[in-house]
């Protein structure tokens, strides 16, 4: 695991400070002499691995030597990202002094590489570095990611001097605020970094960049929060923002192996009377209508969609989120996914029966209706003794674009 920004590569006990990055002068760029500012030229992967194999903690400084012995100062982000890419690290942890928020002011806890890329593009006008990231990614043909072709993005990696480098056009800073062409690494500096007017968009671009290059996950955490590093690494939802290229959390059709996970989530709601009690046999028979949200091998949310094609409607049922993940928008994501699946099946409206959660569904576009609005086939099976209320929602075409068998990365 790689941990930045004055980089730590660790196994267990001993610390060793080593010079593992060969650097060269940046020189004169656009008439400006950068003096003893360096650029990463090469990462000594074998030396780092040797230290790690001997149970040492490797501390990588942003200071390094040129081939002629000069001591040069490099951008810490460039050193961290270059080492992470060269080492093919599982994780890169970036400690900053704030958090990344969505448009509603909520902390973003998880983003797939695709979601991060889309957000960077959406906000690119706010950041010169983000705009440069978009330019380089598009020039290298990495936009194939949006077509779901992850393998082609992996093939964009180059091999320089015997180690795996990043894309041939590395990102960095120019006059404190832009981009330069290097062999590896992503540098952040200048006025943009100091002002923080873009809300850590530069760090997000760096994270997406190294994920494109093969690093599995990048964690951007707020170092001003006590214990944030431990919370990020050892709790399910963490304390910061994680950007991942692998399947960390996804929404998919349930399988028989998910039965125990679904049962664990819905049992408390059945015991309290919020959900209708279902036996394991009933759950198994309905399992092909269930969708689950999986995170690190655990089911954290579920919902069911029972289509009535002749009436072009579908029933939403058993929406449930695990207790530790409530309040983080998982229910909204799952309902949105179910609506997209319904539209892909040609359905025009969704209905549901509820006793305790009407307000939640009303806030999400459902309105109360009479029992006559429910398909006759379903009305025959309603347990009237529960006194359920009936709600319906007309679907909007803007939600189309997902097939029932798609796997959505979150």
UniProtKB/TrEMBL annotation:
Family the entry assigns: Belongs to the acetyltransferase family. ArgA subfamily.
Matches recorded under CDD domains: NAT_SF
Span of domain N-acetyltransferase: 249-396
Reaction(s) catalysed (UniProt annotation): L-glutamate + acetyl-CoA = N-acetyl-L-glutamate + CoA + H(+)
Pathway(s) of this molecule: Amino-acid biosynthesis; L-arginine biosynthesis; N(2)-acetyl-L-ornithine from L-glutamate: step 1/4
Annotated Gene3D superfamilies: 3.40.630.30, Acetylglutamate kinase-like
Documented EC number(s): 2.3.1.1
Superkingdom to which the source organism belongs: Eukaryota
Protein name: amino-acid N-acetyltransferase
GO molecular function: L-amino-acid N-acetyltransferase activity
Organism: Urochloa decumbens
Database matches in InterPro entries: AceGlu_kinase-like_sf, Acyl_CoA_acyltransferase, Asp/Glu/Uridylate_kinase, GNAT_dom, NH2A_AcTrfase
Enzyme type, top EC level: transferase
UniProt xrefs under SUPFAM superfamilies: Acyl-CoA N-acyltransferases (Nat), Carbamate kinase-like
HAMAP family found in the cross-reference section: N_acetyl_glu_synth
Entries under Pfam families matching the protein: AA_kinase, Acetyltransf_1
Bilayer-crossing regions: none
């Amino acid at each position: 695991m790689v941990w930045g920004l004055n980089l730590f590569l660790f196994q267990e006990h001993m610390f060793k400070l080593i010079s593992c990055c060969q650097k060269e002068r940046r020189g004169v760029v656009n008439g400006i002499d950068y003096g003893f500012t360096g650029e990463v030229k090469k990462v000594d992967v074998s030396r780092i691995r040797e230290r790690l194999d001997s149970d040492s903690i490797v501390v990588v400084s942003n200071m390094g030597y040129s081939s002629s012995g000069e001591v040069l100062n490099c951008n810490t982000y460039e050193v961290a990202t270059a080492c992470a890419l060269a080492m093919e690290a599982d994780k890169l942890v970036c400690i900053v002094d704030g958090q990344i928020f969505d448009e509603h002011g909520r902390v973003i806890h998880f983003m797939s590489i695709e979601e991060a890329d889309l957000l960077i593009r959406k906000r690119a006008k706010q950041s010169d570095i983000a705009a440069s990231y978009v330019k380089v990614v598009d020039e290298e043909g990495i936009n194939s990611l949006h077509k779901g072709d992850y393998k082609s993005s992996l093939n964009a990696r180059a091999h320089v001097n015997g180690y795996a480098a990043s894309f041939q056009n590395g990102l960095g800073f120019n006059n404190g605020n832009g981009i330069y062409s290097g062999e590896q690494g992503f540098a952040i500096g200048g006025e943009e970094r100091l002002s923080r007017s873009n809300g850590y968009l530069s760090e997000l671009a760096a994270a997406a960049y190294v994920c494109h290059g093969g690093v599995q996950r990048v964690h951007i955490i707020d170092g001003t929060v006590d214990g944030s590093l431990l919370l990020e690494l050892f709790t399910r939802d963490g304390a910061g923002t994680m950007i991942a290229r692998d399947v960390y959390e996804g929404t998919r059709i349930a399988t028989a192996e998910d039965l125990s996970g679904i049962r664990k989530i819905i049992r408390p709601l059945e015991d309290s009377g919020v959900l209708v009690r279902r036996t394991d046999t009933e759950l198994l028979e309905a399992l092909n209508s269930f969708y689950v949200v999986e995170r690190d091998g655990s089911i954290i949310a579920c919902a069911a969609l029972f289509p009535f094609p002749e009436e072009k409607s579908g029933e939403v049922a058993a929406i449930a989120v695990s207790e530790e993940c409530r309040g983080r928008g998982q229910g909204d994501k799952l309902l949105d996914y179910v609506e997209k699946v319904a539209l892909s099946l040609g359905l025009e409206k969704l209905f549901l029966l509820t006793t305790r959660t009407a307000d939640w569904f009303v806030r999400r576009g459902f309105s109360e209706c009479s029992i006559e609005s429910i398909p006759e086939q379903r009305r025959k099976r309603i347990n009237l003794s529960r006194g359920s209320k009936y709600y319906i929602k007309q679907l909007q075409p803007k939600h189309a674009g997902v097939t029932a068998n798609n796997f959505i990365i979150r």
